[in-house]
Amino acid sequence: xxxxxxxxxxxxxxxxxxxxxxxxxxxxxxxxxxxxxxxxxxxxxxxxxxxxxxxxxxxxxxxxxxxxxxxxxxxxxxxxxxxxxxxxxxxxxxxxxxxxxxxxxxxxxxxxxxxxxxxxxxxxxxxxxxxxxxxxxxxxxxxxxxxxxxxxxxxxxxxxxxxxxxxxxxxx
Length: 172
Fold this sequence. Notes:
Nuclear Transport Factor 2, Chain: A, 34% strand
């Protein structure tokens, strides 16, 4: 399983370094895009309900997770455990919203999703990261989905905090 994740990570790195033309399909099929959007919506719902188990439902058993602090976790169990911890502390009672910026099919079985997220009602976070005075934490999240046995799984979840006052516009 680890070799599958490594192969996907290599493929994504190779894709990112390629010129913009000649990449194959730029958008997922309507059915695939709807499935991915449904998973993203289910995650938002699970977050807003403080349900770490549901939040991890589509995370691959061998998935990789980097949180906003740069901490790295391997596997669905670690992903779920970390979210259960944060839902019980500084993200308790928060409301998350997400806007998909990019949904790009790399191959028939690999999709990259980049989205902007806002978490409202954030409590006291560890001192290395503070939400804006308004209590809103903004992040940029990149998800890599892989289709396995007909289902879409998140194999990479890389979240980066957006500094207070910074623009979410690309390149700014």
